[in-house]
Amino acid sequence: MEKVAPVTASVDSFHNTHNGKRLFIIGCGPSLKHVQPQLFNKLRDEQAFGVNYLLRWEGIKFHPQFWAVDEWPDLWSVD
After folding, report:
1. What is the percent of the chain with per-residue pLDDT over 90, rounded to a whole number?
2. pTM of the predicted protein model
């Protein structure tokens, strides 16, 4: 797994930056086992948030524009 450097920003800095665009929030629950990985290709041109351990989910090569993480710093440690 590649190491991703955390970047922090104020939530206020994102206010209305993508106004009028669709946003997808991709969680990391077990239901992702039932999603075909190629479906994530359709989100390449969309605004998307990845949540928590999506970064470590095997078989998904999807890199959203934004991350919402609350398991800090465990998520960012590299095995």
Report:
1. 1
2. 0.63
